[in-house]
Amino acid sequence: MAITAVLRTIKQAVWIGWKVETNWADPLVFAIYYLIRPIAGLLIVGFIFLIGSFVSGIVDPGLFAFLFIGNNFFIYVTQIMIMMSMLIHEDRAHYEVLKHIYLTPGSLQWYIVGRALNGVMNASVSLVLTLGLGVLIFQFGMGIPIPLNWLGIDLGLLAVGLLVGIVCFMAIGFILCGINIMTSKVQFMLPEYIGGILYLFGGVVFLPELLPWWGQHFSNALPITYFLRIMRFSFLHNTGFDVHVNLVYLAATTVITVIVGLAFFRVAMFKARRDGLIDKKEEY
Amino acid sequence: MKRDEVLHNLKAAYARLWVRIKGGNREPEWLAAEVVMPVITLSAYIFLYKMVNAPSEYAGFVIIGGTMMAFWSNVLWNMSAQFYWEKEIGNLEVYLVAPISRMAILLGMALGGFVNTALRASAVFIAGILIFQVPMVLHEPLTAFLIFFLTIGALYALGMMFASLFMLYGREAWHTANLLQEPIQFLSGTYFPTTSQVVPQLVQLLSSLIPLTFGLDGIRRVAILGQGITDVWLHIIALAIFILVLLPLARLALRYMENLGKKEGRLTLRWQ
Questions:
Q1: Tens digit of pLDDT for each residue in B242-272?
Q2: Least CB-CB distance to B182: which of A37, A192, A196?
Q3: Would an 8 Å CB–CB cutoff place A270 in contact with chain B?
Q4: What is the ipTM of this complex?
Q5: SS3 labels along chain B
């Protein structure tokens, strides 16, 4: 498939994804909607931290910064996985367009990439707004001195880490697409379940060292762990952190995830075509 | 309402309950995942409390919050949003032409959903308490159950009211249901006590508008902190008021939205 055709497919998929996501409401309502959920998520962990610290008598701003960055960048995982998990179900059963997309000369894989990129766009907007509002609420409203140097962010490392991380989360999304093409009832549970596992073992809001030994080993095998470490270092410049080693681990776990994700998706599509699942109806 | 009419509606509620229970437990192999995965999600918050050296009863607060959240999710997705699904599938028009009350259908959904969720939620509760060794000081189990059932009643009454909105709207309703997850978890204090002095008064004021807040706080006080009915009688009264207000409101809202839908021709509109 020529590169221009691939890019055109991705562009159209991003456009249709944007329309599907946004045209149910006017822009203001949509913006509020995309802000409220991540902000509420941040408020939950922020208040757990504050109340827990209050009763124990010690408020550690460094730990707050740890969870603040971790929870905010987890938005990418949530958005990409929800988008990619719901995609097959919506296009196949609800709108009944998956068979048409499958039949076109463009590739379904590139269409899915485009829809996932739409999730990345939404997540990026949510991230920026949540970071800003989070600082307003917790630093200026609740008086926690978050040790973030906004002018000293390592933008290069942030960009590389984000790029590799997004590719990795999209690969996990392809696994979800593969599972959904072969099944018809798990699209709602999958992102919640996989997200829950990554949230716990990725050390998103607490130090992974608190996990039992087997949990720490599992955490070390997950790309999300290295992704969040790099994101945190880009903002916090914590000492004793080896950037290169963590980047290598992130790249290595991402390569494995991409290989597994694409292979799984291909096998799933083969089985789906063989078993007549591509245009399966679910009584919509 | 005549006796025959009441019996007729009770039969309709039972029929809807039966479908809900049968459908919800058709694939028992998923039950394990439905218990394990919520415990995993709750664990992250418990570890967060551990990270800041909070006392162990806070783990109990999280587990009770997560257990009650299962009911709120059930109310949102399997009752309120159910009318949206029914419309997309084509069942809503069948309900509307049937000579039964919409409240009977919703009652069946509520009872069926409650049974299904109660099975899973109690397993999550027991697993959480055992795994994290949460100390429970339960002196008055009947008081805890009273608050629990009042909370469930208030939540399902709220769900019936929301169902009227979902009857008319399409993706807006879907996104609204999404929107009522994390914000409600925050405001109701699902994972932390909203009565803490750290929580701003404005948040406490907003949280008092949600029945779940009273239910959670009451159950935590009785089951974890060992308090009794003399400490939580205000919670009980508040929950009873919620039920008395929300049930008639739900009936009115359903009637209003159904009439509006008929006028605007939106009751059978799909792919909105």
A1: 999 999 998 888 888 878 877 877 777 666 6
A2: A37
A3: no
A4: 0.90
A5: CCHHHHHHHHHHHHHHHHHHHHHHCCCCHHHHHHHHHHHHHHHHHHHHHHHCCCCCHHHHHHHHHHHHHHHHHHHHHHHHCHHHHHHHHCCHHHHHHCCCCHHHHHHHHHHHHHHHHHHHHHHHHHHHHHHCCCCCCCCCHHHHHHHHHHHHHHHHHHHHHHHHHHHHCCHHHHHHHHHCCHHHHHHCCCCCCCCCCCCCHHHHHHHCCCHHHHHHHHHHHHHCCCCCHHHHHHHHHHHHHHHHHHHHHHHHHHHHHHHHHHHHCCCCCCCC
